[in-house]
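cache lookup: miss for this entity combination. No prior model stored, computing from scratch. Input as submitted by user K.M.:
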Amino acid sequence: MHTAHGPVETPAFMPVGTAGTVKAVSQDILEELGAQIILGNTYHLYLRPGHELVRKLGGLHKFMSWERALLTDSGGFQVFSLSELRKVKEEGVSFRSHLDGTSHLFTPERSMEIQIALGADIAMTFDECTEHPAEMERARSSMEMTLRWAKRSKDYFEAHKHEVPWREAAGENPGLPQAPALFGIVQGGMYADLRRESAERTVELDFPGYAIGGLSVGESRAKTMEMIAAVLEMLPKDKPRYVMGVGYPEEIVQYAAMGVDMMDCVLPTRAARHGLLFTSEGRINIKNARYAQDQGPADPRCACRVCSRYTRAYLRHLFVSAEPLAGVLNTVHNLAYYLDTMRSVRHAITLGDLSGILSGSVSLT
RNA sequence: GCACAGGUGACCGAGUGGUUAAUGGUAGCAGACUGUAAAUCUGCCGCUCUUCGGAGCUACGGAGGUUCGAAUCCUCCCCUGUGCA
């Protein structure tokens, strides 16, 4: 995938950097880990520091000193996660800020305006992430509204996408995209029929990439898989297919094998700050007493800067002592694990054989 | 030696006659986390059993006592802090 800010090899795992930072890691380390694209969030950056300020300072890339690709989520997920603070109407969603309680109206147009001001390489349509469980009728009407919002998102985006702050810089590289891309989002709750209809009608709107949203919201893994499978075949194979908000390492490998090109998830970063490390030997909770004297690395098969330097005993000590470095080191390792995993998957794909990785017989790192 | 103030579960610290293994914290042990309101949240946390509903012990410095009933009231003793000799 080519963006104005460099290539993104797929299938890709995208670390989540909600508020203009992948929590606990600096940009230079993200580069070292091989992250080629990270997320930013419309809702959060709009509230603080404000998209106009970011635009004024040259856009999010420049503001946060990140020269690689950026994808911004539209705020659609916050419609779901901040459900107590919002009211959904046809026009859009009125939010009460979780920071200071002030009221704000988010519409598809507003979301596009913000994402363009931030300077995303890939923007997302403003959708409604349907809650789970949801009755069929509820899921249908939610899905229908997401479709109407997708159309409105696209209309506004097409008219304004060249206002992106990095436009001039892009002009110097005519081989690269001169404007950001807008991806559509498939919804439909846990109903395969609705999902398929959503996919079909979203594709009719013609986006350069498609996401599958509203998953991993409490349903079983089998159901998640079923929904992805139901939709994937209907999305054009020559365009990126993005499953939003997943998942555990085993899950992202499986989805990639199914044909998913992009995934993002807060799990590696959040879990890291909570002491959960993903390793080739499974998950370990570094705060457990049994690691108090463990002189081995977090993951013996990992070559990241954390595993090659620090012991589990030390990582445990940092975590138990609530030292800020604990969150940093744990996050670096978890991201290394995720990104290495995806690198292995890409390698396996070029070899034409994913069986080893899927069966677990081949090291993910 | 005298005068005050105190001694509560690993620690800090509520409780001043009865809804009681005893409020809260901390520490400890474990669990959860999936387009980030998350360095957050949840459970356990005296001992021994348990058919997981519960049962039995032991507990508020020590020893007695009052009372149907005491961490809570009384007596003596021990210890700690502060002040004065």
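stored under new cache key. Chain A is about 45% helix and 15% strand.
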